[in-house]
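U., I forgot to send this yesterday:
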Amino acid sequence: MNGNFFKVILYGPGENILKLQDSVHANKIDLKKYDLNDRQYKLLEILSQNNENITNKEYKELFEVSRSTAARDLRRLVELNLIQKYEISGKEVIYSIK
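Result:
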């Protein structure tokens, strides 16, 4: 090669590309049908992008809401199967994306 060029080889799924596309599309969820509030949308975005966990206390502080509002928002997301609830020890509970 001459000039300012270089070659990149990307290895991927090859003939299995259609199977990969189907699995990616199967995991997409239309959140509009759940009638979530802005806090719940933002939480799902944060958890999915950063692969983090959150507690009720952290949710309360992050969105500046009461403990009962935080609990209600998180409980709704668990009921909709959008996040998972894990009891760590005693009263300590964390929530993470499904």
